[in-house]
Amino acid sequence: MRLFLLTAFLCFTGLISGQESAASQTQTQLKVRQAIEKKAEYHRLSSGEQSGYRIKIHFSVDREQAKATRNKFVARFPECSSYEEYQQPYFVVLVGDYKTKLEAFESWKRIQPDFPGAFIVKGKIRSK
C-alpha cells in the first residue's frame, strides 16, 4: 500500500511540475514574441538605422571632387556601400556600414592605400 501511495504521489507531482513547465514555456514564448515585436517597432521607427561606424574617404567644399572620389571608390571597391552627404560646408564621402570599430578597421586597412586620407568615424549606419 505504501508503495502504491508513493508511486501515486510521485506521478501526481510529476503532473503538476509538467503543468508548471508548460506554463513556464508559454510565458517564455510570450516574452520572446514581445521582444521580437519590440525590435520590429524600433527598426520601423529608426528607419533601419543604428549606431555604428563608417569610413570617411573625402571631405571638401567642391561637390564635383566629392563625386569623382566616390566614383573612384565604387570602381575600386564595388562590394562596399558608399554615401555622399552634405555636412555644411563640406561635401563628404562615407563608405561602409560597420557595426563594430574592428570591422571598420579591417576595411580601412584595405581602403587606406588607395585613399590615404581615409579615417573611421562614428555615426548612424543602415542595418543589414
Mean pLDDT: 84
Number of domains: 2
Count of helical stretches: 3
Radius of gyration: 28 Å
For the sheet with most strands, the description reads:
4 strands, antiparallel
CATH topology of the largest domain: Alpha-Beta Plaits
- Could you say which structural class the secondary elements and strand pairing correspond to? alpha+beta
Distance between the termini: 66 Å
Shape: elongated
What does this 3D model show about the protein?
There is one protein chain. The chain has 128 residues and is of the alpha+beta class. The protein has 2 domains: 45 residues; 78 residues, Alpha-Beta Plaits, CATH 3.30.70. It is 54% helix and 27% strand. It contains 3 helices and 4 strands. The protein has a 4-stranded antiparallel β-sheet with strand order 2-3-1-4, with helices on one face. The longest helix is centred in the first third of the chain and has 44 residues.
Keywords:
alpha+beta, Alpha-Beta Plaits, 2 domains, 4-stranded antiparallel sheet, 54% helix, 27% strand
Write a brief structural summary.
With 128 residues, this protein is α+β, with helices and mostly antiparallel strands. It has helices at residues 2-45, 63-76, 101-111, and strands at 49-60, 82-87, 90-98, 119-126.
List the helices and strands and how they pair.
Blueprint (H helix, E strand, L loop, with lengths): L1 H44 L3 E12 L2 H14 L5 E6 L2 E9 L2 H11 L7 E8 L2
Antiparallel strand pairs: 1-3, 1-4, 2-3
